[in-house]
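Just curious. Protein, please.
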Amino acid sequence: TKRLPRAIVVGVKKGGTRAVLEFIRVHPEVRALGTEPHFFDRNYHRGLEWYRSLMPRTLDSQITVEKTPSYFVTKEAPRRIFNMSRDTKLIVVVRNPVTRAISDYTQTLSKKPDIPTFEGLTFRNRSLGLVDTSWNAIRIGMYAVHLESWLQYFPLSQIHFVSGEKLITDPAGEMGKVQDFLGIKRVITDKHFYFNKTKGFPCLKKSESSGLPRCLGKSKGRTHVQIDPEVIEQLRDFYRPYNIKFYETVGQDFRWE
């Protein structure tokens, strides 16, 4: 039968959410929706039955998972998910907010080559070091701010944070923690991964569907735009207080400093 998801990868964009979804769906007890349904941000008016109809069929022993990274920054998403089920498990994949912003910009640039420069979009006033927090690429990385909305509805024990950096250096270790969080056996281990030097990140030796090696699509692992080191420094300073607050709230140091 089709069931509502018991776990949702709610964020963050350009953090490594696609990798987490592709890796976790190798597990026999997990069925995942491949596309992003955007139910709790854009399609909520269609109702829960519509949402359920998109889900893959599962056995009683299987968990349904979906991912839509924009949920993390959507004001209404925590309340809406809570209203669906207060027991929903939430997965948030985070990475250094400066790198994340550059990755986000790189993706947008590949679709709209005529957008302003990264520097131009980052600052309201560069000489004063005033960062434009209304620009989405900057705003998403203020994790501590967005997390507050979630903690009004869900306890920290129901939110699992994946390090986007460790997902690359130690995919089996990070996925081990995800499996523990979901309450399923650690089936996905070192033997599932190999490191692809061209892409610069781990790939699966066997995919869920075909049994052939599987790497994430062409759009993943793009070469980032070169940014002035001084701009990066200013952004590091900007994010530092947010990062520290985030570490303190979740009780985990991601070492972005």
